[in-house]
Amino acid sequence: MIALLTVLQFIIVIVICIAVLLQKSSSIGLGTYSGSNESLFGAKGPAGFLAKFTFIMGVLLIANTIGLGYLYNHAKKDSLAEKIKVESNASVPNTPIVPSIPNSTSSSMVPNAPKIPNDINTTK
Questions:
Q1: What pLDDT digit, counting tens, does each position of 71-102 carry?
Q2: Where do the coiled-coil regions begin and end (predicted)?
């Protein structure tokens, strides 16, 4: 059943691509076909028919995708995420080692500011 729906999915996608390419755009694009085809679809041309057809095929694509997802999830009870084995490495510590910051109250670790001679600081 899943194989049949997968083949149907590919067929729907190809049909949607063809239907979109046949539609006329503002710059005509790939929708250039003879004017005699327009009489087949009516006075407005194929624009209304192809737009409705594309919409219907899009709805079928969404329904088929949901059906495939439902059937695949019931057929496959296990998940790839459940098969992943997590190996613990004893050589790697659990907490990062943070270097210790010297205590700012200790005067022996803090350098002194340079001494400026008094005659330079006086204003005249």
A1: 988 877 777 777 777 776 656 556 666 666 66
A2: none
